[in-house]
Design a protein that fits this description.
Blueprint lengths: L1 E8 L5 E10 L2 E7 L8 E2 L4 E4 L1 E6 L1 E2 L2 E2 L6 H11 L3 E9 L3 H16 L5 E5 L21 H11 L3 E6 L6 H10 L3 E4 L6 H10 L3 E2 L16 H7 L4 E4 L8 H11 L4 E3 L12 E5 L2 E6 L2 E4 L12 H10 L4 H6 L3 H6 L17 E4 L5 E6 L2 E5 L5
Parallel strand pairs: 1-4, 1-5, 6-9, 9-10, 10-11, 11-12, 12-13, 13-14, 14-15
Antiparallel strand pairs: 1-2, 2-3, 5-19, 7-8, 16-17, 17-18, 19-20, 20-21
Helix pairs in contact: 2-3, 3-4, 5-6
Amino acid sequence: MILGGGKVVAADSTVLDPGWVEVRDGRITSTGAGRAPQPVDVDLRNRWLVPGFVDMHVHGGGGAAFQDGAGERVRRAVEFHRSHGTTTLVAGLVTAPLRVMERKVAELAESVQDGLIAGVHLEGPFLAAAHCGAHPPSLLRAPAAADLRRLLDAGAGAVRMVTLAPELPGGLDAVRQVVDSGATAAIGHTDADYELARAAVGAGATVATHLWNGMRPQHHRRPGPVPALLEAAGVTIELIVDGLHLHPAIAHAAARAAGPGRTALVTDAIAAAGLGDGTYPLGEATIRVRGGEARLAEGDSLAGSTLTLDRALRNAVAIGIPFLDALAAITSVPARAVGLGGEAGSLAPGRPADLVVLTDDLVVDAVFARGNPVINHTEER
């Protein structure tokens, strides 16, 4: 299959206009500028051809939550997000009893083996009660090495990221344990001060989970974790650009401060994404959605989102983030942050043929996962 006749964002983020991509057996075999060497199978008609999106922080969508375990529920959530251009997902689990989380990790590991998801993100239970958000405070705990090992072992390599609060007893040792296991250590839902956040980065933490949200707020004499995470060259910052979690000026300032190579746009989407108003489960909590805004039914805290990455891309561009920078923030940057840089987030030859066709107003026109069409409206226009 050859796709050509449009603007192709190459592996080095240059734009081939026009450009083409050849796909065989589910992988990209070659790319080039100008006219394709053979007749094209998919005429891009001046649209954009970009890598499939990568969501490193998502809990569900289309009425299904990853918390529900493997099988059809996982497939439903994956298919929903694929229809919006996200071809690679790291499935998020929220805080639950340890034995439940252990079982869910093992179940999701099956979906990793099946290729439905790229890994598991443990957002809990090693979080600070002071900034728990939608996580039940009664189920939070300090990251004892044995407990963390249970969860990591349950995944048999499927756990790609663990979010934790480094100020908890054993927190810095837990960061090291996560990194030693081969997973990414992320700092979030934390009451850490500036100095402790720097220490966590020194111990190996490389992601800031939804920066600002679920963190000690900034103060001009007590800066908290946000400046420490923004200034650390090796830390990828997650931003939820839905207009609710962050003021647009803050989101733009954070992206500018971190730079395009360190900014990852995430959805933090829950099962309600793609559905209407109503009440939905999120782990042990009940979420109320009104006008697309998800909050705890009791307590009123923001509880994930109904965002999709295509909308996050449009939102980011609308607040002034350059298109190619915003595109990197949903492709190559998150892929690299969770150790998927060799298998996702780029149109380089040899990579899986995860492709998205965008109109000039950044609406998804076609999606291919491993070369197979998910949606394809390119011939309808």
